[in-house]
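Progress report, Aim 2. The chain analyzed during this reporting quarter is listed below.
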Amino acid sequence: MALKALAVAAIGVAMSLAVGIDSAKAADKLVALKVVDETSIPKSLTGNAGDAKNGRKLAIHRKKGNCLACHKMPIPDQQFHGTIGPDLAGVGSRYSAAELRLRLVNPKVVNEDTIMPSFYRNTGYTAVLKKFKGKTVVAAQDVEDMVAYLMTLK
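Predicted structure tokens for the chain:
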């Protein structure tokens, strides 16, 4: 059973990365960011507040954020919630925006064994197709929008 769950997880992450990178408006150059105490990124990547409404769209978008591929979410109108990641109901009460931002940008900083993809990183991957090299899964403002949405999940 555990092997089957791991296989499903690997397929879900691979699909999320392959499809997400292809559709992202990702810049070749990352904006400067500062990780504090390996737990958070306190400042917005763009200097702008996130748009929670757009963040929700990204979270359920099967070719962008695609949170539903791995996580159950408090979005009953959407089908096919994942079960390999933690339930995101109440995530805005458990973590700060700064902590969620780091988990989206590069979750391996918090947990090196996680299978969650890094949504705003453009190096350090292996076996990346040439057309995806140097690109992020989502843009910096997309990260801010997803953080804003996740913070509404109290």
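Helices lie at 2-23, 52-60, 91-94, 97-105, 140-152. Residues 2-152 form a domain with the Cytochrome Bc1 Complex; Chain D, domain 2 fold (CATH 1.10.760.10). These observations will guide the mutagenesis work planned for the next reporting period.
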